[in-house]
C-alpha cells in the first residue's frame, strides 16, 4: 500500500470516528466539552500559524476571538443578520483589526511586540466594558440567537442541543485545518518559516517581510474571529471576559504543550487541556481555589524544560523507538 493511500485511509477512518462520536456519547455534558474543545482547536491553530510558523509572539490573540464573538452577536441581535453569515462577518471584522495590528509588527519583534499586543487586547477589553449602549458593559450580551435551522427538502436540522453544534464545530475545525495545511505547504508557508528562522537571510534573497507579516496577522485573526462567532451562538453569552489575557495564556499553553509549529500539536493540546480543565473543576470545588491556571503554568514550565516539541515530539519519539525495535 502506497504512503498516499495509507494517509487517505487514515483520514477517512478518523473522519468516520469523529462523525460517529455524537451517536456513541449521549451525555450532553461531554458533548459540551467536545464542542468547546473544537472551538479551542480553531483558536489554537490560528495562534500557532502566527507564533509557531512565523515567530510573531502575539499575546493579544484573545482580542480577535472577542471581536468575532461580539460582531456576530451584535449583527444577529440588532440587525437580524443570519448567524451563519455572522460567523464569517465576525472573522472578517477580526481580520480587519488583525491587519491594523500587523503594522506595529513590521517594526517590532520579541518582547516589544508581545507587550504591544497585550496593550491592544486590554484596550479593546476596556472598550467592551465601557461601551454599555452597544455591549451592555460587564453584563455582556445574553440571549444571543442560536444558529438558524437548515432545511434541505423535507430534512430539517435545528440547533437546540450540543450534538447539533458538534457537527457545525467539526466542520469549522476541518475547514480551518484544510486552509492552514494548504497555506503551510505552499510557497507562502515556506516563506513564513524562512522568515521565522532567519529574517535577515530571507530579506537578502528578495523576500519582503512586511507584506507577509501583514498577511499572516490578517489570516490568523480571521480564524480566531470565526471561532469567536461559533462560541457566541453556542454559549449564547458574550462578555468582555473573552478578551482577557488569561484566554491568550490558555491558547499559548495549548499550543506549547501540543507542539508549537506543528499542525497536530494545537489539536492535541486544545483537546487534552479542555478535558483537563473540566476535570479540575471538581477539585476546585473541594479546594475553594482556582487552580486551573496554576496547573497550566506548571505544565508550561515542564514542557519548556523537558519536551520542547510538546506531545507531538513525545509521540514521534516513541514511534521512532518502536520502529527501531522491530
Structure description:
By secondary structure, the protein is mainly alpha-helical. Helices cover 77% and strands 3% of the residues. The chain has 14 helices and 4 strands. It has a two-stranded antiparallel sheet. It has a two-stranded antiparallel sheet with strand order 2-3. Helix 3 (61-79) crosses helix 10 (209-235) and helix 7 crosses helix 8 (187-197). The longest helix has 27 residues, at 209-235. The two termini are 19 Å apart.
Question: How would you briefly describe this protein structure?
Answer:
The protein has helices at 3-24, 28-51, 61-79, 83-107, 110-130, 132-135, 162-185, 187-197, 199-204, 209-235, 245-258, 264-287, 292-306, 310-325; strands spanning 141-142, 150-152, 155-157, 237-238. It is mainly alpha-helical.
> Quick check: average pLDDT?
89
Q: Please, what is the oligomeric state? A: single chain
Strand line-up of the largest beta sheet: 1-4
Please outline the major beta sheet: 2 strands, antiparallel
Unreliable residue stretches: none
| End-to-end C-alpha gap | 19 Å
What is the molecular shape?
A: globular
Radius of gyration: 20 Å
Helix content: over 70%
Distinct helical segment count: 14
Write the H/E string, N to C.
HHHHHHEEEHHHHEHHHH
Structural class: mainly alpha
> What proportion strand?
under 5%
- Based on DSSP secondary structure assignment, what is the total number of beta strands? 4
Pfam families: BPD_transp_2
Subcellular location: Cell membrane
GO molecular function: branched-chain amino acid transmembrane transporter activity
Keywords: Cell membrane, Membrane, Transmembrane, Transmembrane helix
